[in-house]
Amino acid sequence: MVKLPPLSLYIHIPWCVQKCPYCDFNSHALKGEVPHDDYVQHLLNDLDNDVAYAQGREVKTIFIGGGTPSLLSGPAMQTLLDGVRARL
């Protein structure tokens, strides 16, 4: 049996306090509140759509970038990571 290579997972949090002029990432200055719960649910729904491609493969790294990932609340980050773990 062929062993599939490990995966690295990138999770994008697109908001910043302000957009830095040198930044090329798909990120946006925050206007109002971060939609923590809705955004995390959408991320997990996206993962549900693609999780079959990861079956049998180890996830070696998870990179959370953006934007400013720390703008996501602690409880929302916990829900996100718990959801990733449950699916992978």
TrEMBL record:
Superkingdom field: Bacteria
Domain Radical SAM core as annotated: residue spans: 10-73
GO CC entries: cytoplasm
Signal peptide boundaries: none
Stated name of the protein: YggW family oxidoreductase
A Gene Ontology biological process term: porphyrin-containing compound biosynthetic process
Gene Ontology MF terms in the entry: 4 iron, 4 sulfur cluster binding; catalytic activity
Cofactor(s) essential for the protein: [4Fe-4S] cluster
Pfam families: Radical_SAM (PF04055)
